[in-house]
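Task card 7
Instruction: Convert sequence to structure tokens.
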Amino acid sequence: MKKSTRLRAALALLPAAALVLTACSSGEAQQSDAPASGEIRTIKVATVGIMSDVALRIADEQGYLEEEGLEIENTTVANPPAGVAALQGGQVDFAFAPGVVFVNARSQGVPVNVVAGASGFPEGIQPGPELDLYDDTGVYVGPDSGIDSLADLEGKSIAVNARKANLEATVSKALLDEGVDPASINWVALDFTSMVEALKNGEVDAAVPVNPFTLRADEAGMVRIASPATAFFGPGASSFWLTSEQFASEEPEVVAGFQRAVLRANEYANAHLDESIAAGVEVAGLDIPVEKAGKIYWPTEVSQENVDLIAENLVEIGFLPEETEVGDVIIPAP
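Output:
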């Protein structure tokens, strides 16, 4: 079967990740017959160059996209909000977004919907070291800081990559769960390289890097005291592939085809985890051994509860007004 080369060429040009961040029937995603016309439709997808993007490569290389009569023209954006903006403006047809970015966009009236899950946390794993492997973020402190838990961070300084974004949200919820008021924290916005150095030098009390900067923190002797994302998002999808309401209305068959291809790719990725993680490391441009890349879960379904939980947590930590309602935002599986 002939495979499209456009996606592979585009993914090969992805920069090193500036890592931050469906209603689908259970079981195997439905397979579509190839279009009778044999024509291939090019769709534009905004990505940010992280490991979950490997599903797009799998969908291409396994022929799932071609079977749907699709090929992808990849657009790398600086960050997920830029991808949502491109989606809203019609520059792309689909875009990646972490759950916090998506819910924030919907709360502001941006007409985007969930097509499929991009990454998340598997069911059936109890909170603890095994589940923490799926969290590519971590709260780190210095080895001699005297800080042993989140409860010790009251009134301290914590470095995050951006204010009121994904990392501050997940850590704020974790702090609240430990009885710490996030408003007592001196939140410091730093890029990931700078935050690890600031932590090493004692300029901040804690920092929240993401992989591979978590590895740099480990190598520098910093101590991880929490993995905040697992509790914030719960089992299921924590990031999504989105499309605009307008595109979904005008091109329902294209949306359904993309959805089927991604779901099949997610199933393949979970069934071939080592292979997929290795491909994800390459896609994200990470210079790390595969065995240190942690784990990743590609969701095969998304429930409204996944989205509602994110919204509820954002309301709880004061990031959204109490009256916020996300609404029915998931495009059903065909």
